[in-house]
Write a structure and sequence with these properties.
Keywords: Calcium, Cell adhesion, Glycoprotein, Membrane, Repeat, Signal, Transmembrane, Transmembrane helix
Membrane topology: Single-pass membrane protein
Protein name: Cadherin domain-containing protein
Strand content: 35-45%
Structural class: alpha+beta
Distance between the termini: 153 Å
Largest sheet: 4 strands, mixed
Organism: Seriola dumerili
Number of domains: 2
Number of strands: 16
Helix content: 10-25%
CATH class of the largest domain: Mainly Beta
CATH architecture of the largest domain: Sandwich
Strand order of the largest sheet: 1-7-6-3
Order of helices and strands: HEEHHEEEHEEEEEEEEEEE
Subcellular location: Membrane
Radius of gyration: 35 Å
């Protein structure tokens, strides 16, 4: 009997402890929004105020920030002020790539008794990347007999940013032979084509060099450039010509 009572008492005690911890772990969550690349020490928000905690409580209960995702701790807490601050570089592209939303998951941990608060930090994109072409030189060989309206697909510029901070338009250096046509696909990506608007003539111009510029929609606006090099190929569009219509010669008889 004594053995049975002892076991029952022990199990009840463990259950009480488990429930106690669970109750203190189920406290409110907080959410913040922060721009990427903010300086270390920048204030994200006052987490103590948002959770109704005094600064004295933070120190006495050894408040700290733990991360859910990796060993890198992007945020920390100032125990004197209760501010949640930037602790390490937050690079949205490195964390989330091209995802539409980017959220850091952190936890505020308090001890004696154990208390956990989930902290969600939405990382906002800034225009910190310029459009880039995969190659600086885009080469075409186009015959001089090509018809007006002929189209030639151009290399797409890439931008690590998203939304309006990504590539929004292309500009082509002004010239008499080509213009540019830009289409947008369902995913918002811009595709450009070189369009021939005036026939080429190799006898007048054997090659052309034009500057292609990709621009994003951020502020300040960023851009990237590439050179389009067109080699004009000869076509059999000219018949042989004599320099004069009549040639005269005098022959001396022996």
């Amino acid at each position: 009997m004594e053995k049975t009572v002892y076991r029952g008492f022990s199990m009840n005690r463990y259950c009480v402890v488990f429930l106690f911890i669970s109750l203190h772990s189920a406290n409110g969550d907080v959410s913040y929004s922060v721009a990427e690349e903010m300086k270390r020490g920048s204030v994200i928000g006052n987490i103590a105020k948002d959770l109704g905690l005094g600064t004295a409580t933070l120190s006495s209960r050894k408040a700290r920030i733990d991360t859910d995702q990796n060993d890198k701790r992007y945020c920390d807490i100032n125990l004197s002020t209760g501010d949640l601050i930037v602790n390490d570089r937050i690079d949205r592209e490195g964390l989330c790539g091209k995802k539409a939303t980017c959220v850091l998951k952190e936890e505020l941990v308090l001890e004696n008794p154990l208390e956990l608060h989930r902290v969600s930090i939405r990382v906002q994109d800034t225009n910190d990347n310029a459009p880039q072409f995969s190659e600086d030189l885009i080469s075409f060989e186009i015959t001089e007999s090509a018809d007006k309206g002929a189209r030639f697909l151009l290399t797409e510029a890439r931008d690590a940013d998203i939304g309006t901070n990504a590539v929004q338009r292309y500009n082509l250096q002004k010239n008499e032979h080509f213009t540019i046509n830009v289409d947008t696909d369902g995913g918002g990506r811009k595709h450009s084509e070189l369009v021939l608007v005036k026939e080429l003539d190799r006898e007048q111009e054997q090659e052309l060099k034009l500057v292609l510029t990709a621009l994003d929609g951020g502020s300040p606006q960023r851009s990237g450039t590439a050179i389009i090099h067109v080699t004009v190929l000869d076509a059999n569009d000219n018949a042989p010509l004599f320099s004069q219509t009549v040639y005269k010669a005098t022959l001396k008889l022996l």
